[in-house]
Each structure stands twice: as C-alpha cells, then as structure tokens.
Predict the structure.
Amino acid sequence: MSTLVTQRVEEGVGVISLNRPEKHNALDNAAGEALSQALRWGAESAEVRCILLRGEGLSFCSGRDTTQLGQREPGDSDFAFVRRAQDRRLEQLDSPEPFVAAVRGACIGGGFEMALGCDLQAEALTPRHPPRRFSASSSLWRAYMRAARSAISSGTPGSRAIPAAREGSETVALA
C-alpha cells in the first residue's frame, strides 16, 4: 500500500484518502498510479459496499502537480498519458459501488473531475470555504448524466453541505 494514497474499510465503506497535504493532494505520476490501485482495491474488495474519496489536510485535490506539467516518462506519448488519466476516471464511473466525495478546500482540474464523477459530493463548510456551486468542462457529460440519474432515482440532489467539525463521521454515515 502506498503512503501517497491510503485506504481502509470503515463500516463497509472503503475510505480512499489522497495523502499529499503539503501539495494540497496534487496528483503526480506516483500518486496517480497509487490512486488507480486504490480504486481497483475498492472495486475488488468484498467488504466494500461504497467508496469515499477524500483528501488529507486542507484540500480535496488541487489537480495535477504543477511541478510535473509537461513531463513524461521516456517513450510515453501525450496520448498514453491522457488515456491513463481517463481510464482512471472510467474505472470510477463504471464501478458498481457508489462513490462519495468528501470535498473541502481546493477541488481543481482533475480533482474536480474526480469529485464530479462521484455519485454524491459532501462539502465541508468552514468560514474560509463557504458553500459553492460546482462547474465543469464539457468533457464530463457522462458524469453529469450519472449525477442526474442519481438525483432522479433518489429524489434528492447529488451534493450535501456538512459542517467541517462533523465532516468525518457524517461523510462515512452518508456513504
């Protein structure tokens, strides 16, 4: 198990935590691969009924680590790089387990896509981070459709605002 992304089971909920708080949980190559492995763990684990994605520290995920922007492994094409990131998103969207995003602080770029791809988003409210509306790029049509189906079938919107002091217990209960 990686220290960049941690995983545990809590009351049937597979809790996957991005663990780079000093970088606001930005994803570099190693963290992206660790996240892919954690997503597979959640999908394959018999004791996991739901997956909760969260970030350690002040932020959910600030997207791609800017220190690695434009850098690729030798022989790795831009297409292959983008394809791996999209495959990770498709694994999340195609999972039979529902996903909940515990969002606080920065939720930008790929982090935003990850949160939007969840069936439910629970946003921690703090004085510094009041409630906000999510927005997205047009490439996330499938995620919009999944959220819409969830809202229609449950009769409730796909997001919740939770006081920061109760974030941990309420997001696990929600999941």
About this structure: The chain has one domain: 5-174. Confidence is low (pLDDT under 50) at residues 133-142. DSSP finds five helices and six strands in the chain. Helices lie at 29-44, 78-94, 110-116, 141-154, 167-174.
